[in-house]
Every structure is written in C-alpha cells, then in structure tokens.
Amino acid sequence: MKNSIDKYCxxxxxxxxxxxxxxxxxxxxxxxxxxxxxxxxxxxxxxxxANYIQIGAxxxxxxxxxxxxxxxxxxxxxxxxxxIEWGSIKTNMKGECRFVIKDFNLLxxxxxxxxxxxxxxxxxxxxxxxxKSISFKDAIIKANLIAKDSLNYVSATLSDxxxxxxxxxxxxxxxxxxxxxxxxxxxxxxxxxENGSILVPVENGIPGVNGILTLExxxxxxxDYGTVITSFDAPIGVQIKEETTFDDRTMWSxxxxxxYFLLIVPNLLTFSMWGIIIxxxxxxxxxxxx
Length: 290
Hints:
Layout: H1 2-31, E1 37-46, E2 51-61, E3 64-67, E4 72-79, E5 82-90, E6 96-101, E7 115-121, E8 130-136, E9 139-148, E10 151-160, E11 165-166, E12 173-176, E13 183-185, E14 197-202, E15 207-208, E16 213-222, E17 226-234, E18 238-239, H2 260-289
Parallel strand pairs: 1-17, 15-18
Antiparallel strand pairs: 1-2, 2-3, 2-6, 4-5, 4-7, 7-8, 9-10, 10-11, 10-14, 12-13, 12-16, 16-17
C-alpha cells in the first residue's frame, strides 16, 4: 500500500513539473514573438517646394493596428544591380515620417525613366524585418490664371519631364488652399485633353486674406507619377472684413473695457441705497435725542 502511495505521489510530482515547464516555455515563446511590420510609402513632388517620400509603419498586434514608433528606416535608390544609400530616418509617435530628397538630380532612373526607391526596416527585438518598394516617373505641372469673357480660369498643363512630352487623360484636382482643408473647385474629374491641359473656372466671391487666393493644381496618387502639386497666388478673392469688437466696450470685453452703463447704473444704485440707509440712521438718531 505504501509503495502504491509513493508511486502515485511521484507521478503527481512529474505531472506538476511538466506543466510548470510547459507554461514557462509558452510564456518565454510569447515574450519572444516578433510582430510583422507593414510599411507604406508614397512619393510627393511640390513644384514650388521639396520632393519627399511620406512613410508610415503599422503592425497588427492582438487584432488591432498599432502605429510603430521610433524605428529606424533606411532609404535606398535601386539602379539596376546597384544600390545607392540615401540615408535613414526614424518614425514619430504616430508611426510616420517624411524623407526629404534634398537633391532630386542625384537620383538615378532606369532606361524607362523610372525611379526605384526601397524603404527598409532591418528589424529589432520586437518587430520583424520589413521593406517597401515604390517606383515613379518625374512629372511637371505648369499652371497660371487667365481671364476669359469676364471670368477667371485656372489653366494647367501636365507633362513628363524626362521625355518632354504631354500627358493625356489624367485627372487633375483644382483647389483653393485653406487652413484645415482645401476648397475644391471645378468638376470632380478634370481630365487633361490632347494638349495635356485643363481649363477650370474660378467662381467670383470667394473670400481670401487681403483678397489673395492660393490656387493649387494636384495630380493625386497617380500610379506612374505619384502626387504632384503646384500652387500660385491670385488677387481675385473678396477681401475679408474683420468684424472684431476688441476695441469696443461690450459685455464680453475685459475689465478695463466695461460698458459705461454697467459702470454708472450699478454705482448709482449702490450710492442710493447707502444714502437711504444713512438717512434712516440719522433720523433714528434725531428721534432718540428728542
């Protein structure tokens, strides 16, 4: 009987040790699981500014998309079998970063005038290695304002810089720059004609600071050319009238600009009440003395 109890106790001890070891291995494996990173990269060209690549990094952790912050990304220019290092950049708290191409003329394109860019994350203790490749050509947008039949129009032409040829059948957005979101004008799709041009009317009466409107023409998220933006100022807006009461005496003004009636009427009422109280006290005193 005693031997049976000892064997049973030994069996339980072995089972407990096995469970503890298995649980520890599971926890260790879970702690060392590396998550997959998904990179997004888009090319932007500002005709009046910089050329840059907008990069984003996310990872799916516990069935939720999480921004991957503070990871270092390398940017390369791939030219046939040659890899040219362009530099590195870190993502911000939102998992985003903007890599500015300081000298676009140093980029090398292949025989089809296509630029190939690789964005590479080499991995770390938490995330696996990841990469994203984008390809684009170099486009140019030329835009200006013309007057026709007492109306103002935005005239824009889209062309390929490498081949110096016009680009037909592509949609350009025409919009007015605003503080939070641009105001789109014209048709929903403004396709370039056989001359690579569009002509979009600008409505009268659009307000602008000092009567100036900043007009933008955008080739957005194009498969071949990325996003290309050009902008220019035009004095065709309605000047904004400042309707401010800063120098007026209003109910919501600061203390030193209190309306006069709020200064006079309450003070008169206060002095009147004190005058009545003083008169009554004086009258009671006279009655007491008599």
